[in-house]
């Protein structure tokens, strides 16, 4: 978690954007169901790092509902392969539905 206010102000200056309508829908469901997702400022920092590094492969360990995976997929090239492990077995059907409906990788 980023706690230094100057760092947060710097990251916020880039204009925190949550992405597509699919991400907004997942975010609303996460808030409704009290499922943790990446914080806005951390997401913006991640977006910047993805644009700089342009990774070919990403492994996300501990996905809850797939928000970060979809977020990274929207902020990388179409040829980037994203693999993930999930941490909430109860959410598995929802996660599969999200990947099927919104995954492009």
Task: Write a brief caption for the model.
The chain contains five helices and two strands. It has a two-stranded parallel sheet. 51% of the residues lie in helices and 12% in strands.
Please characterize this protein's 3D structure.
By secondary structure, this protein is of the alpha+beta class. It contains 5 helices and 2 strands; from the N terminus they run H-H-H-E-H-E-H. The chain has helices at 5-12, 21-33, 40-53, 67-74, 92-102; strands at 57-63, 81-86. Strands 1-2 form a two-stranded parallel sheet. The longest helix is centred in the middle third of the chain and has 14 residues, at 40-53. The chain starts with a helix and ends with a helix. 18% of the residues are buried. The mean pLDDT is 82.
Principal-axes geometry comes out as: globular
The radius of gyration is 14 Å
Structural class: alpha+beta
What low-confidence regions span 5 or more consecutive residues with pLDDT below 50?
Answer: none
Mean pLDDT: 82
User: Biggest sheet: strands side by side, in what order?
Assistant: 1-2
Distance between the termini: 28 Å
Question: Helix share of residues?
Answer: 40-55%
Compressed to H and E, one letter per element, the order equals: HHHEHEH
What's the helix count?
5
Major sheet characteristics: 2 strands, parallel
Number of strands: 2
Portion of residues in beta strands equals: 5-15%
């Amino acid at each position: 978690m980023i706690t230094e206010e100057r760092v947060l102000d710097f990251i916020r200056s880039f204009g925190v954007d949550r992405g597509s309508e699919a991400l907004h829908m997942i975010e609303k469901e996460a808030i409704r169901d009290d499922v943790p997702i990446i914080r806005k400022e951390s997401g913006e920092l991640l977006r910047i790092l993805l644009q700089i590094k342009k990774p070919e492969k990403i492994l996300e360990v501990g996905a809850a509902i797939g928000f970060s995976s979809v977020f990274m997929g929207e902020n990388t090239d179409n040829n980037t392969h994203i693999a993930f492990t999930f941490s909430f077995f109860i959410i598995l059907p929802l996660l599969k539905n999200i990947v099927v409906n919104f995954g492009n990788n």
